[in-house]
Amino acid sequence: MLEISRRNLIRGVAATPLLATVPGSPAAATPLKTASAPTAPESVTLGWLEGKPGANVGSTWGVPWPKGAVPADSPFALTAADGTAVPVQSWPIGYWPDGSLKWSAHALAADAPLSDSYVLSRSTGAAPSAAVTVSESPGSVTVHTGMISVVVGRRGSAVVRSIARGGTEIARNLELVSLRQTTAGDDDERRTSRERLTSSITSVKIEQRGPVRAVVRIAGTHKRRGRSWLPFIVRLYFYAGAEHVRMVHTFLFDSEGQREFIAGLGVRVGVPMRDELHDRHVRLSGDGDGLLREAVRGITGLRRDPGAAIRTAQVAGTRLPDPATWDQRVTTRLPLIPAWGDYTLAQLSSEGYTIRKRTKAGHGWIDVDSGQRSSGFGYLGGVSGGLGFGMRDFWQKNPVQLDIRGADTAEASATIWLWSPEAGPMDTRFYHDGLGQDTYPEQIEGLNITYEDYEPGFGTPYGIARTTELSFFALAATPSAPDLAALARTVTTPPQIVAPPAHLAATRAFGGLFSPVDRSTPGRAKVEDRLDFLFTYYRSQVESRHWYGFWNYGDVMHTPDVDRHVWRYDVGGYAWDNSELSPDLWLWFAYLRSGRADIFRLAEAMTRHTGEVDVYHLGQWAGLGTRHGVQHWADSAKQQRISTAVYRRIFYFLTADERVGELMHELVDSDRTFLALDPLRKIRTEPYTPDPHALSIGLGTDWSGLAAAWLTEWERRGPKAAAAERKLLATMRTIGRMPNGFVTGSGLYDIDTSEFAVAAKTVSVSHLSAMFGQVEICAELIDLVDLPEFEAAWLQYCRLFNATREQQAAECGTHFGNLILKQGHSRLTAYAYTRIGDATLAARAWQEFVATDGYTDASPWVTTRMQGPEVLNPVDDAAWVDTNTTALYGLAAIQNLALLPNV
């Protein structure tokens, strides 16, 4: 039951605004909101997401600040829990419209003292003892971390020309490789040939120069014999005092996926081998902290014993005594002991890997062992130094592979295969032949049976992308087993510094729509328990349903099949979710209020997936995303609601991740996509040809996606900030001028003026309009911009969606028809309450949340354990759960708990 008191009536209402303008704004007549007498904490206590790590490899994070409280040029200092001053690099990544700092980003050096927590304060900080430096020449960029020196090529194939430590070259000629074949090899004999293409650099840009963190962006393509394909963007990250280079590898799929196939995709690096064969070592990680530890020429297990101390030293990876001091029965026969030059660890599924080795090419492979899930880390080198290398989300993004070749020669190589050559070609062909759906009426019929919106030629992967994180460690010697295990853990789970939920909520940086987890009343405790239940269920489904794989990892399924006890992975639009109804936002808001690491990591994986795989980055549909389907690119509905920046914003501002920032910047001009593709082309009843001065754009899922990109560019002060601001404010003003505001449904947009034509008083309301981030974007905009007509239009929509037909007709001329998703829309009613102060809206919102559709007290709130033969694998099943309802319940619960009093 919800009780309203006068005291709580204005809970969540923004402070009375002052009028201001942004200097130089093209919309200078638009007043912008600033807080009255703003204050900010002098310091914020920060912690590690997963607790203090075992090894420090540096960390980058974001911190929000209240509106108007922190000057844009404010310095920052960092101290450890014991008061020790810690060097920190700080820079702005978001501004409030009044010019004050909204988000600051910070970097911790790799040689900084590890502390359980840190205090970030607004004062001048300490400088690093050994700063990152960047120097340039016409042909290269050289970065020194104080521990290693890295030369980055400006042209050619070598993205990294060399990595040296203490004057010793540890690695050289790091290049990207791909294997291309022109047939899928469907027949048993697989008559096909492969060609290898390597990276060709087209541009190098220094994005950050230190002193604690430096970032170099390299772009290019894979080339051979005039063929160029698979454009790439690689970012190299360097931290002061670091012995490693972090790589964020993105490739764009510029193929239709029908007549040429990726047979391998990887990163290869050369490793000089200086030590004697018995002092060279190979390490490969297995399950957990497991390690394969071998020497290239082993002297353990022989018929003759060189001595216990010698055997122990080799297993430990330390330098062996001069062989002249060994038992001579071993020393004189050393050349007769095979040297194992090649190793391969192949993880072709999430459930198993194999390791094998051979002496050299042309000779047989020997099985070493197998296991379930390798963490994807390896070491190649010797007692005088070597290279550690690893890939994050290794087994999750299968099929993957680690190769070591030529460890018995003067220069070995290590290859991290993002797509394993042993897996066969990557098959991106469309999964059916069209089923005769050649016309729009036939396609609508298909939609009515399989929920798939098919159209010939639209199920193409051309223009999608994938990003993967890798790390390369220049090590002075072969590390001990515990040290190697610690390095593997840092690759698997990079240490992440975070701000606490209370601070994130207090700043209202995301519109004031969440509050920290609170179980202070029975009603709140019940809702919190149900939120935990739903997250735990989805986390378990990822595992038990094996929602892993190169293209799949990070996504979840849409709807279960209650008869087969599976999710409808093979039924049209019921399969992969592709952000339908905002599970991305549910997870991120769940993290913001809880600070839970497991929620952060699942949300992070979803952000990496949905921002890259489900969105086009090249071609005619660049800037649009694909609706849910059996394949992530299969459905013919290419829309703003999937590509929307609102799903990426939170991760970006929490981590300052450059790739995700780049993704959002790509969307600033995506209003032009409406010239390329009409999202309503199959259901329009009137003739329509896209006109740049009268583009039909929906005021719900379309405009909210555009507005999210414009807002993000504006507050980041990106290269197109002025244009983004103009577009955002012009559309807000003209929506506010429409007689029925958002209830109008759509408007005619002029690309040149960025304005909607003021429409007649019409009613067109969809249950989907506000469910793809519009609630969240409008809450932020109303906090930022003082446009009473826009706020009134949004509050009208919020008040009326779940209102009675009579109330709808009284204001808008007619009712809204039969609407669903009332539980999801209860948060709109709650938001209207916080702005208007009408207690009846608060009471109505809670009733809409607990007693309409969606999940209620009548829902089971339990899982059923199922095992064979009813199911393929044991699983905790809850056939009553689907992702649409879960995402909307989660967001409604989180936002209602924040907005409504006395729950």
Automatic annotation (TrEMBL):
Name recorded for this polypeptide: Tat (Twin-arginine translocation) pathway signal sequence
What PANTHER family does this protein map onto?
CONCANAVALIN A-LIKE LECTIN/GLUCANASE (PTHR40081), TAT PATHWAY SIGNAL SEQUENCE DOMAIN PROTEIN (PTHR40081:SF1)
Domain PcRGLX/YetA-like central beta-sandwich, first and last residues per copy:
132-488
The species this protein belongs to is: Actinoplanes derwentensis
Q: Start and end of every PcRGLX/YetA-like N-terminal RIFT barrel domain?
A: 43-121
According to the entry, every stretch annotated as the PcRGLX/YetA-like C-terminal alpha/alpha toroid domain falls at: 494-901
Out of the domains of life, which is the source? Bacteria
Q: What is the lineage of its organism?
A: Bacteria, Bacillati, Actinomycetota, Actinomycetes, Micromonosporales
